[in-house]
Amino acid sequence: MTAELVRGQNHPLSQVRLEVRISAGKPIVAGVTLSDEQGRVRGVEWVAHPGAPTLPGLEVSKQAAADHRLAFDLDALPQAVHRVSVLLALPTGVGGPVRFGAVAAPFVAVTGLDGLEVASYTLTGLDTESAVVALELYRRQGAWKVRAVGQGYAGGLADLLADQGLPEARQLAGSINEAVAQGLARSVAAPPPRTPDSDRSRQAAAPAQGPDQPPYAGAGPQQGPSGAAPPQQNPYMPGPQGGGAGGTGRQGSPAQPDPSPVTQPSPPTAGGPVDYSHPGRQTSAPPPPPPTAPPAQPGQPAQPVAGDATGWSMEERLYNQVWGMFEDLARTVAAYRSAVDFADSRMEKELDEVLSDPRSRIGGQGDAAREAARAKHTLLVDQARAALDRDLAQLTAEAEVVEPALPMAYARWDNPVWHGYRAPMETPMALRLGDLRLPETENLSIPMLVRLPLERGLWIDSGRTSLEGTLADSDQVRRLSMDTAVAHAARLLAVYPAGEFTVHVIDPAGTGASSLAPLTRSGVLGGPPAAGATGVADVLNRLTQRVDLVQMAVRGGAADSLPPDLDTAEQLLIVNDFPHGFDDRAVTQLRYLADEGPAVGVHLMMVADREDATAYGPLLDPLWRSLLRITPVPDDHLADPWVGHAWTYEPALVPANSQVLQQVLAQVAEARRSWNR
Length: 677
Known about the structure:
The chain is α+β, with helices and mostly antiparallel strands.
């Protein structure tokens, strides 16, 4: 289970031999500092960097590169070490970017040696900073945790190291930059160019390595949705990278572990380097898509086909294809906006040149120059729009083919697949929460898919918002918010096998009764909605106790010792009208569930207006940040990690007057009764 962290959030680590994978798009310097229980770095010998890449229990890259793999054996660290900080910096004096705001947001993932991702963090919001503390691995009560930090320093490595308590910070920063400058020529090679006739699935291959990179044994293909995240991962639809619009260059799903025997890792020798070999490394790529469509005629665009990404199943192929469409749309719109910005700046520059010359301000010569500048601007914008329209036409055709073929978990509620609903036998890869679109693409939307099990809680914002061009009534928005929560909960119940998902509801004042009626009438809830302060306390006590028990069992390696009456199904708690009915203890328990629950199968869905909780001040800021905010009406509040597009989110609601929700919940209830027999 992967935890997608936000700044300040932590996550427990169940392994001590780890890799930290870093992707930034541009060569960066990666390093590590060790600090004691007081957070003090005792000297330069506690800093691993390209000039001194190895310390007991860890190893970093010897060069600046766009992609890094740092290796850790936390048990081999000195006993005095209580915190390990992962540092990123832009190399100086080599002609590259000088601030993180000029590069793609760095992506950091913590993985096990089997390549499976434990936690990830996208460092957004950086601007003038040229060095940043990305992550902390820290010891707490005998166990290790990872925290997303994202603390940047405009003064670069010198300021960062000084803030870590090193008196020799400036000299050490200079030696690091010198070592990087000397080894920059040995940086990781760029990937080979894509051929025009390649299919949309880029075959998995071992990443290129520089001559001084550590020889990570069995380094396999880049991971996609089922494993470690690739560079520049999107926080809303985790998966592999794609190419430009038109479908070429999209990477498929990751290779699964090969079932053939592999060499078992040998135990590390005392004082020797960390052994990076492991038995679970992937050794084969997923199968290519079947040849379901004839090749395109010369000069004609390829005919779209549903499921033509790589993957081990049709569901995985469609997931990767939707991801590729999302990435294609983001990049083609970014190219259009960049071209328009260039045309605007060029026209302004040419007009300024005309106005700066007194001889050309008036008369025919000046008018002709201005007309020429405007004509060039119009030509550039028209060319950019033509390219955008071409790409949008291709993506629209692909969406029209893909949408009807989507499986139940990915489909809209108006898809006929729901009318033939039967309880599934396996949990799907992902779940559709709605659709995403951009202002330039009013007629094209991309399904918003999130991986299962949920890695973050959901916050359905019931605050005052605009609805169909007018300011919506507060009660109307709250009703829509609860309708949205019920639709998402019903979808979760429907896509999980019978008995493997349980929903609890906290509705202190009973204001959500009408929206909750489909859930209560069908009998699919784990109990009646909790009302009043007593009901709130009872539900929160039971769920926090479940989190504590499962955490202790997992950490102690005694999962079989859980109480026999413990519900081992995934749990979803829907909270309406927060903070009404919550005292300080209940608020603390809710924050605990939001932080620790997803890792042990307890998920949170908040239906709340943040303004209602302003009395708590900044105390609840970590709670809101830990949840994925969605809205009951279309709203442009989601951003991608590449270019920061403001995507408009549209919720996945049941069509008006449709009975599909009641029919599906009736089937879910019947499947649960059969399962309990």
